[in-house]
Amino acid sequence: MSERYDIAIIGSGPAGLSAALNARIRKKNFIIFGNKELTSKLAKAHEINNYLGFYKKSGKELQEEFNKHLEEMDINITEERINNVYAMGDYFALMVNEKMYEATSVILATGVEYGKLFDGEERLLGKGVGYCATCDAPLYRGKVVTIVSYNKHEEEEANFIASIASKVNYIPMYKEKVEVDPSIEIINDTPVGIIGEDKVSKLKLKNSEIETDGIFILRDSISPGQLVPGLKIVDNHIEVDRLMRTSIKGCFAAGDIVGKPYQYIKSAGEGNIATLSAVSYVDSVSKK
């Protein structure tokens, strides 16, 4: 049986880090998933003047302060991407490719950088459209696979698929140099829609169309409704109350993912509240 954490935090922006900090202070057994590198939003922030106590700081400088605090509190970020979260009654199952984590409560703090869905993407999800190439790779043995990638890190997934599929098309949505297996065809074009009746047949691009049996869309994060089935979403944000509780018992959310204003200090405050609520929930479950 795998270890069951009290709290699993998904996201390592200000909301997720604040949640982790307070989970440590409250002496809970927790895990935080995210990226140790600067988030793209913070990286772009030239000067921040509305974060109390940190005047005229750039996003990079603010992140450095966050990192010092995490180091001081002995908090480590687990660099794995959660593909799905399932409510199992008295705990949550968090899926990472072929691996699973368990937690009594979950805090969602993934921000809003999951991008707009392509036409046909939602309708054909599970019918040739997927978000985890390594999970579904065996289904595409000897078939044509197309990967739409938003991050250079995903090149390894493309190489893995290339060892199984008959052909792999790779569409990079990032600016860095693409370094994939020579057998992979790199297509520098912009996807606009996915075509198919009961299953995927083609990917429509701005300047062309390609026939394909499967499409993997590897974004940095996926939309909250796809991440956690059954979650109530309003205007593309997770609906929460003032205690950061979502529509699913034991699941909390904080930061940009719950709505405007998209401000770092607001996100950090919500991360704090989400953890306090999660702690109360975990304590109430343990008393049963």
TrEMBL record:
MF GO annotations: oxidoreductase activity
Ranges for domain FAD/NAD(P)-binding: 5-140
Protein keywords: Flavoprotein, Oxidoreductase
Keyword Flavoprotein listed: yes
The protein's name: Thioredoxin reductase
Species, as recorded: Clostridium diolis
